[in-house]
């Protein structure tokens, strides 16, 4: 670590160093009651492997920290991406299924409207046949005279006198 040295005497060698709460590094020889660099009343933390991770992190290489953080971040991104892909696959299946059901219902609806139309036509036929049947059941005298009969009757009546008066 090129940057590491005592902030007071600038030595790099020594068995024990400490970091102050005011942010200075002191070798064993430079440790006094207050900070030997800025004179602030401070507390000392011995630099060692027993430091907490949040303290140790200040002595790690920023580049390596960035790489490991980036790896962690990319793991998080891949994890979330995989969840997203599952949702997309599920939604695609849902879309296909809903489209299939919609087509099925549309076809059924079309068939239903065709059957309704056919049913209406048949109902009309039945009504006409009922009317005709009721008419046929009446005695001859009560029957409505159809224009066809009237025509034939009057035709016969008309032809008779002509035949008589003919020479
Ligand atoms: Zn020193
Ligand atoms: Zn200081």
From TrEMBL:
Coiled-coil ranges from the UniProt annotation: 88-135
Cell membrane found in the keyword field: no
Keywords on record: Coiled coil, Meiosis
One GO location term (cellular component): synaptonemal complex
UniProt-recorded Gene Ontology molecular function terms: SUMO transferase activity
Any GO BP: reciprocal meiotic recombination
Keyword Zinc-finger: no
Protein name per UniProt: Si:ch211-10e2.1
